[in-house]
Amino acid sequence: MSFRLRAARTLAALCVALACASCAVQPPAANVLAIVPVADWGGTPADATRARRHDITHITLHHQGEPFRPGTDARQYLRNLQTWSRATKGWLDIPYHYVIDLEGKIYAARDIAFAGDTNTEYDPKGHALIEVVGNFEEVEPNQAQLDAVVDLMAMLANTYNVPLDRIASHRDHSDKTVCPGANLYRYVQSGWFREQVAAKLTARPQSAAAR
Fold first, then answer.
1. pLDDT classification of 204: cutoffs 50, 70, 90
2. Do residues 153 and 43 touch, judged by C-beta distance below 8 A?
3. How far is the C-alpha of 42 from the C-alpha of 39, rounded, in Å?
4. What is the pLDDT of residues 106-156, one digit of tens each?
5. Burial (0-12, 13-18, 19+ Cβ within 10 Å), 147
6. How far apart are CA 44 and CA 84, in angstroms?
7. Distance, CA of 149 to CA of 134 (rounded, Å)
8. Per-residue pLDDT at 5 exceeds 70
9. Nearest in space to 97 (alpha carbons), one of 122, 61, 123, 73
10. How many CB atoms sit inside 10 A of residue 54's CB?
11. What does the buried/exposed string (b/e) look like for 171-208 if buried means 16 or more CB atoms within 10 Å of the residue's CB?
């Protein structure tokens, strides 16, 4: 075999290898929503044998209902909430599927396949439950939290085909609570969350990155 033929074959093989490599390495999708998995904040899985399974038909917003001061460790808060939910309330897990901290970071909580829990009379089966930390009877939600709520609602609406008119809050399903607090509820009542979610869904669909 001549030197030129060997060189040509080597060059051809190198080109094929580079082409395959460029096909295999893809940048992460820009529309994937970053969600901190349960294991990353130190939580433990729920007992699936005790769970009520459900299909998501609604998206329902809650607040913590207690002060959440800057500098509070969100991961420790979630671990404490999980322990309290199981040991004191006898619930399967944290009652919410997602928790949003002061920085707008989204944490996975109860498995979305399992129906949530509530202290009030409505049945949360079918509801994707979102909690935002803080007491919004007393403080305003910050922009990072509002943005995270919109992003998460848009992802859930897209993933589970939830109509915009089924995006609501705890107090819309129960007359025994002021949750999610007046200062957060006004974004629900005015239709602002639905408008923002609609705009995001029109721009691009989203998918979850956690779990």
1. low
2. no
3. 5
4. 999 999 999 999 999 999 999 999 999 999 999 999 999 999 999 999 999
5. middle
6. 13
7. 14
8. no
9. 61
10. 17
11. bbbbeebebbbebbbebbeeeebbebbeebbeeeebeb
pTM: 0.83
According to the 3-state scheme, what is the secondary structure of the chain?
CCHHHHHHHHHHHHHHHHHHHHHHCCCCCCCEECCECHHHHCCCCCCHHHCCECCCCEEEEEECCCCCCCCCCHHHHHHHHHHHHHHCCCCCCCCCCEEECCCCCEEECCCCCECCCCCCCCCCCCEEEEEECCCCCCCCCCHHHHHHHHHHHHHHHHHHCCCHHHEEEHHHHCCCCCCCCHHHHHHHHCCHHHHHHHHHHHHCCCEECCC
Cα 95 from chain centroid?
Answer: 14
**Distance, CA of 145 to CA of 95 (rounded, Å):** 19
Q: Which amino acid is at 143?
A: Q
pLDDT, one tens digit per residue, over 21-58 is 333 333 333 357 999 999 999 999 999 999 999 999 99
33 and 152 in contact (C-beta within 8 Å)? yes
Highest mean pLDDT among 17-26, 184-193, 201-210: 184-193
CB 43 within 8 A of CB 113: no
Kindly list the distances between the CA atom of residue 158 and the CA atoms of 90, 115, 142, 203, 208, in Å, as whole numbers in the listed order. 32, 19, 25, 12, 10
The residue type at 46: A
